[in-house]
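Side project, low priority. Logging it here so it doesn't get lost.
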Amino acid sequence: MILLRWPLLIVLVLLALALAGCSSVELPERWLPLEEVVERPSLPFASDRAVTTLGATVYVTHLDPWRDELPDLPPGRVALLLHEQEHAKRQLAYGAGLTAWVLRYLNDPAFRWEEERAGWALEIRERRRVGLWSAGSAESVARGLAANYDGMVSYGDALEWVRGVVAGRF
């Protein structure tokens, strides 16, 4: 049995996602299994830049930029969607189902780190490929990984991993 460490957070996220869906944008076939980007309400515990993917749906706080940019997404959005597309593929392929994936993600820092590495590796490579990677990018991504995922990884381990991705070791 999984013991929930974040019961209030889970309730708030599920409530916010249930309230979402008033406005959405369909994604081109290129992004399958992702199907749509849906606007969700602002959440007090998430930044306005936070993006969440559940199954085939990407949830964002502000949908207008996505609407304005489709079908010709700028390079930063492409990198982000590659990250989210990887999450969708992994979630939908998870043998125990999406709900089990979410519960494991929320309660198992090693699993969360495994899942985030898969998405972030693609995003980092794409950002480098299109010139959106600068001298301080590795440190910035490592700080975000260490700070925003509830103890999933230390800054030092995240920085070592990000540098490894940049060097082609991951």
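Brief comment: Residues 109-129 form the longest helix (21 residues).
Revisit when time allows.
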